[in-house]
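Researcher: I'm comparing several assemblies side by side, and this is the next one on my list. It has 957 residues spread over two chains. Same procedure as the others: predict the full complex and return the structure.
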Amino acid sequence: MSVPVEPPSQGMNALRLHRQLAAIWATGPGVQRLAAVNHTVLGMRMMITSFLFFAIGGILGMLTRVQLASPHAAFMDAETYNQVFTMHGSMMLFLFAIPMVESFAVYITPKILGTRDFAFPRLTAYGYWCYLFGGTILTVALIMRVAPDGGWFMYTPLSSNVYTPGINADVWLLGVTFVEISALSLAMEITVSILKMRAPGMSLDRMPIFAWYILVTAMMMIVAFPPLILGSILLEVERAFDLPFFDPRRGGDPLLWQHLFWLFGHPDVYIIFLPMAGVLSTIIPVFARRPLVGYRVIVCAIIALAFLSFGIWVHHMFTVGIPHLALAFFSAGSAIVAVPTAIQFFAWLATLSHGRPRWDVPMLYIFGFFFVFTAGGLTGVMLAMVPFDWQAHDTYFVVAHMHYVVAGALAFPMLAAFYYWLPLLTGRTAVHRLSLPAFWLVFIGFNMTFFMMHLTGLLGMPRRVFTYRGDEGWNWLNLLSSVGGFVMTIGFALVAIDIIVQLRFGRRVRRNPWDSTTLEWAMQIPPAPYAFASLPRVGEETDGVAPGKLAVSLARGEGYLGFTRNGWQEALGVHMTSGEPEQLIVLPNATYLPLFTALVTGSAVIAMLFKFYLLALALACVTFGMFIFAGQSAGLSRDYGPLPVGRGISVPPHTEVANAPSWLALVCTLVANGTLFTSLIFGTFYLWIAAPNWPAAVTPEPSRLLALVTIAGLAVAAAAARGSLRSTTAGGKPYGWLGLTVLGLLVALAADVSLIGGVTPNPREHALGATAAALLTYVALHAGIGLLFLVSNFLRFGAGFISPRRLTDLRLSRLWIDYTVVTGIIALGLVLALPGLVAMLGARP
Amino acid sequence: MNGRPLSPRRLWWLAVGFTIWCVALVILYALHAIGCAFGWSTGPLRVSLAIVLLLHLAAIGWLWRYRAAARRDPGPEHISAFMHTVVIWTLIAALAATVITFGPALLLTTCL
């Protein structure tokens, strides 16, 4: 990184404030860098890491193009090719696309919202390390030639133990799930931070459109990832312990995997597209030199797109044998999803046509995006039509469409964003002599590579073949595709060189070089670790004030929190809709804990991979223990009451308010968790209605008594959790109530485990028993985690972190236990209903 | 600031229209699967699906009417006007999506 271009020179106050804040917020040198929790540092690291995986994934893509450039190529054998194309897809989707858009969100969002950091910096760090370690596991597997080889969507039964007996599929299931934990934790972090940590006065209608996009995307991730996490867990359990969720011989169904995968997979396309659309909605008005046309309509379109994208997963499964009427739901949904996308397109075009556009490198990439994404969108509407899809399914036409919508929608806006925000990151501007040829090489190479695939697909070339005969008429198209691939790679290499050259030799720029109106330019560039020396007030008084002018005032400490106190990392928590300040959020300082916790989590994954299951269980327990340990130092150990935050306002610290960020974070966690639970319920009903070989030879006979004891134990725990809250509010000590809560959970846990032990039919013999065991294990796991919450409550009450005014810990425990009671009743009710459901199957014709 | 801030609970309204769309999808898909699996005859199955669709359309339509009658959300003018517009238009969009996605499909052969 280069040194700051514009060190605060507006007088001694600004300089002194900069030094004081930097001493608190800066990440230490040397090995202390591993303790970083700052969003600027982590966002940058995540960006660099995602680009390293992009480079690896890109090389793998090039290897496939070398193999397919000519018929009968001996460059790779079939086995190697399978690993290469599987890892190309998996890396690009899971290790590049999602983390890259998240890295943008992590780096830019707090700055564009006018705040200093995210709500849970240690979670950001944990998310980063999980991502790095998960990606490393996959990469090492590739080097060791034991990489996944069943396609990036890991369809069963190919990925089952019978057809993939090695660890290849386990690497995918465990590695990708590990990375998804990271993505999910970051999504929760982003959601809470956007809703609670904006600049004072930034009401929702004043929020930059980029933040709306990121907020909706993060919420989509919270709901989209759990079905795949569940699917991965069930498939791994099938592979490791022989529970036949996907084995049709024993009451399972391979199509259940496809449903769970695409419940994630389709929204994932929009999870990648929406942040990039946010980039476009941010950049286009700047270059058009006028405000974005249709702010409110775009917000409506984003919401519509988010929901519609969840309702069309079956269009990836048009050929599996679903009745026409049901297919028509998904076909129509797939077609109308183009409408909210088109609304955004027209808003961008209207902004350009009503403005005074100027051309620069980011605009070139925006032009590239318009071209590529329109083409991809049109083929998407073609594929939404069932008869066409039946013809084109599993051909290179789909590969072409996918690259146009996913790669095109990602790569071009991403590079536009890079060239737009690089001056913020580096304080320097691009070298045009390299940027322009780089764009044209990427653009021409991209279209040359992927347009040809439409044609090979229409000529019948199937996906995933490692070679072809040569008499099919595909030869010259494949050769052109491969040449195009190399042209595109040279373009990306030029982009990389351009960025390196810019870092070293780029011309230094003034603050806000594009004359933007968003707050990330109202700071020193490159940004200081605290981002804003004081926080801006957003409102009519600042409308139209140039970020550069605002930056001077903020650097002098004339906004909120323009001072230091107790060595705290301070930010403001605001009312969700109005943006008015309502709490002082004291953020944790740099710590190695996220790194160590991620290392232990990674070790658990590796132990699982090598089938050391007891060790994996022990390491998972250590991970949970480390979370409790991390919680011990969170918050403040005494009451402070309202504290001044500047501009004549005082607000209480986040520990003394009811709506602290951690409360909202747990709500988000439970939404994700609830989605996973709903997917499990869906899976149970799906197998009941669709799987072959039902009913089982043995009828299920769950013990009603044990089920009632489990529910009674959970109900007692929920009531006692309320008692502990009441007791503490009244100034008493809640130890008795906490003890009763523990007792209730232990009774529920013991009864539930007994139920699992007595599940019939044997979970290894039939999916009926396996699903019952999965439902009961879900309840046991939640009761167990509830116990961890209570251990934390005991410890923190003893250490003085809980008081009549600081009740967040107890409220969180109550919420968790309430959730456990509700899901427990549903899960146990379903297990008890299974004999009846099985009996109903006898009435089928 | 003028008046009390808009309650965060009002944000749920942004999701209401399309949540009903999602619920309609899940119920229609599940009911259709159950009907086909248990061999329901075409008439009753089609009628049940149509009733489910009409109930969801009625729910979104009623919400649209209810919100339109309210004219604006409580709270400061800017944010309440913004919320009102966005909620109304998401409800209209959800209504249109429900009609287009599920309506014509019900005319097809049920379990082919």
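Model: For your comparison table: Chain B touches chain A through 49 residues (CB under 8 Å).
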